[in-house]
Amino acid sequence: MITVGHYLVLSAILFSLGTFGVLTRRNAIVIFMCIELMLNAVNLSFIALSRHLGNMDGQIFVFFVMAVAAAEAAVGLALMIAFFRNKETIEVDDINLLKW
């Protein structure tokens, strides 16, 4: 029998993996994928708790998180394409346009 605790543990593991990826990777595309992993981990916990508590609030928040994730992906990929056209790289260490 799979309980809510199992889903929450899985969500915590996925969120931790995403956090580790954001903090250790240098490729911007991989960082965006790790952020998506973190957002989906939060969605999993929202759905599990919503199902456990018997209300729809968590499922409504999932739609908001999915909208934010879609916007982040669209804007982030557009920025990465612009950086790649200018700098020929998408490594975050090389993207230092705001530094003097």
UniProtKB/TrEMBL annotation:
It is found in: Cell membrane; Membrane. One of its GO terms (molecular function) is quinone binding. GO terms for biological process: ATP synthesis coupled electron transport. The chain crosses the membrane at residues 6-23, 30-49, 61-84. It catalyses: a quinone + NADH + 5 H(+)(in) = a quinol + NAD(+) + 4 H(+)(out). It is a multi-pass membrane protein. The keyword S-adenosyl-L-methionine does not apply. It is an enzyme of class 7 (translocase). Keywords: Cell inner membrane, Cell membrane, Membrane, NAD, Quinone, Translocase, Transmembrane, Transmembrane helix, Transport, Ubiquinone. InterPro entries: NADH_UbQ_OxRdtase_chain4L/K, NUOK/Mnh_C1-like. One of its GO terms (cellular component) is plasma membrane. Its EC number is 7.1.1.-. Belongs to the complex I subunit 4L family. NDH-1 shuttles electrons from NADH, via FMN and iron-sulfur (Fe-S) centers, to quinones in the respiratory chain. The immediate electron acceptor for the enzyme in this species is believed to be ubiquinone. Couples the redox reaction to proton translocation (for every two electrons transferred, four hydrogen ions are translocated across the cytoplasmic membrane), and thus conserves the redox energy in a proton gradient. NDH-1 is composed of 14 different subunits. Subunits NuoA, H, J, K, L, M, N constitute the membrane sector of the complex. This is NADH-quinone oxidoreductase subunit K. It comes from Geothermobacter ehrlichii. The lineage of its organism: Bacteria, Pseudomonadati, Thermodesulfobacteriota, Desulfuromonadia, Desulfuromonadales.
